[in-house]
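stage 2 :: seqdesign
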């Protein structure tokens, strides 16, 4: 981030602009939104600027800028649309101590003006560091559509009510009250007219003051395979409402970013069945936080119900008499199979699919190898990298075809996703050659679709050649 966003207090302070043409007009229209003292230097101002001066909206000085003209100004805009004049005025303004901006010249500007969505006092500033003004405008248009125009009114009335709302205990009770106001009672009242908002606020406060305190609760949330867009809407909402988030190590930072800023984030450091915080300690941690009345999100990679040791955590929460629910997530097998363009099941090939773990707490996990070794079987193997040679040995021993396709998908759905295509015979060698360091899903009995198509074409060509 090269430009750090802040909201600058300009009420009653000086802003100076040099220029009298179109660029100056556009900036001035924006600057009128703030309660600043505007001074414009322009030898030949546009008639509109003269009108604004007559209306008292700005002070117009009909000459070029001179040293000292920007003294005490907090901001300066060079809008003469002439590179050498803009450089001259900017140098003067800097000497006077103002922060300077040259219209349409990002490189020589000390600050930039974002695209603004104005629901005063709610203001949203959108910046792209000059990289994509089109994108900023599109985001602005999108937000303009989505935010009700009454939002500003609700915020203004709400602001005056803040003192009264302080009667509610700090933290969640107060947050719940305001959420209820902005997203429920407020808009409803405003639909009846502005006068209905204040009585609605009074009634709402009464309801919240007499409401019993909210009890702690645990949401076991599947965070999906890594791509934040593969989070469910429910998972997003849970993150948004959480007081405490206890997450696995594999959760992508982009997903944790979505959490409420005040939420306490705890890295439980679990990576599959790997070395980590002890399960008992995690259980105790969840219970301890929920007992304080917190809304706890236990965030697990993929789907919490797949190789997630969920039941142990639920048992602990149950034993403590705390309520809980599960928010399903997209398991990594779903993301990985999508990455290779295949289906987990297919008519005529496999009517069932197994989710296996390569190893469990006792070591390499045993399975019904005989059943798996039959042609057409498909298995999604979690935590299968270390167990690759063991799995290969068991399957071959039970009669699996050495050429059965095996595909590994590392970091499924993430930008660094990789696919390793191999077969049962060459699995251990290809796996060690590939040097995968991230989480990987192993598909037994599935090859990537594109390669499959190529291989088939190759077979046909070969047959024809013979
Ligand atoms: N609950 C998780 C699985 C936890 S076990 C889920 O539903 O996906 C951890 C194993 O999941 C890893 O060893 C790896 O095999 C797999 N895994 C997790 N994230 C993955 C990803 N993004 N790409 C491929 N495999 C992944």
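stage 2 :: out
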């Amino acid at each position: 981030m090269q430009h750090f966003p802040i909201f600058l207090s300009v009420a009653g302070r000086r802003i100076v602009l040099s220029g009298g043409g179109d660029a100056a007009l556009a900036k001035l229209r924006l600057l009128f939104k703030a309660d600043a003292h505007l001074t414009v230097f322009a030898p030949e101002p546009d008639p509109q600027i003269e009108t604004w001066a007559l209306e008292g909206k700005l002070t117009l000085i009909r000459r070029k800028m001179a040293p000292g003209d920007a003294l005490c100004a907090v901001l300066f805009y060079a809008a003469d649309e002439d590179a050498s004049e803009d450089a001259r005025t900017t140098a003067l303004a800097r000497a006077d101590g103002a922060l300077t901006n040259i219209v349409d010249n990002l490189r020589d500007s000390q600050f930039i003006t974002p695209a603004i969505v104005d629901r005063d006092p709610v203001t949203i500033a959108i910046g792209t560091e000059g990289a994509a003004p089109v994108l900023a405008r599109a985001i602005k248009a999108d937000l303009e559509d989505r935010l009700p125009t009454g939002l500003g009114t609700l915020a203004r009335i709400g602001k005056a009510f803040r003192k009264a709302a302080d009667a509610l205990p700090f933290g969640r009770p107060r947050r719940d009250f305001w959420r209820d106001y902005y997203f429920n009672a407020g808009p409803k009242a405003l639909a009846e007219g502005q006068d209905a908002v204040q009585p609605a606020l009074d009634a709402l406060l009464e309801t919240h003051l007499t409401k019993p305190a909210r009890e702690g609760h645990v949401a076991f949330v599947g965070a999906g395979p890594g791509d934040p867009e593969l989070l469910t809407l429910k998972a997003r909402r849970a993150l948004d409402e959480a007081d405490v988030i206890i997450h696995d190590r594999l959760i992508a930072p982009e997903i944790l970013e979505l959490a409420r800023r005040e939420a306490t984030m705890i890295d439980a450091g679990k990576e599959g069945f790997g070395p980590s915080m002890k399960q008992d300690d995690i259980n105790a941690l969840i219970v301890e936080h929920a007992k304080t009345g917190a809304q706890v999100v236990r965030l697990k990679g993929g789907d919490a119900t797949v190789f997630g040791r969920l039941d142990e955590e639920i048992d602990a929460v149950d034993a403590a008499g705390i309520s809980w629910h599960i928010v399903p997530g997209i398991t990594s097998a779903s993301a990985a199979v999508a990455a290779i363009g295949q289906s987990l099941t297919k008519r005529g090939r496999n009517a069932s699919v197994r989710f296996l773990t390569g190893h469990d707490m006792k070591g390499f996990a045993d399975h019904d190898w005989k059943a798996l070794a039959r042609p057409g079987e498909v298995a999604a193997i979690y935590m299968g990298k270390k167990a690759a040679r063991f799995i290969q040995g068991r399957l071959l021993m039970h009669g699996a075809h050495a050429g059965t396709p095996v595909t590994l998908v590392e970091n499924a759905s993430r930008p660094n996703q990789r696919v390793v295509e191999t077969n049962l015979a060459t699995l251990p060698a290809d796996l060690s050659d590939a040097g995968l360091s991230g989480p990987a899903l192993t598909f037994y009995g599935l090859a990537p679709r594109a390669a499959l198509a190529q291989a088939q074409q190759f077979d046909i060509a070969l047959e024809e050649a013979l």
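stage 3 :: structure notes
- DSSP finds 17 helices and 19 strands in the chain.
- The two ends are 62 Å apart (CA to CA).
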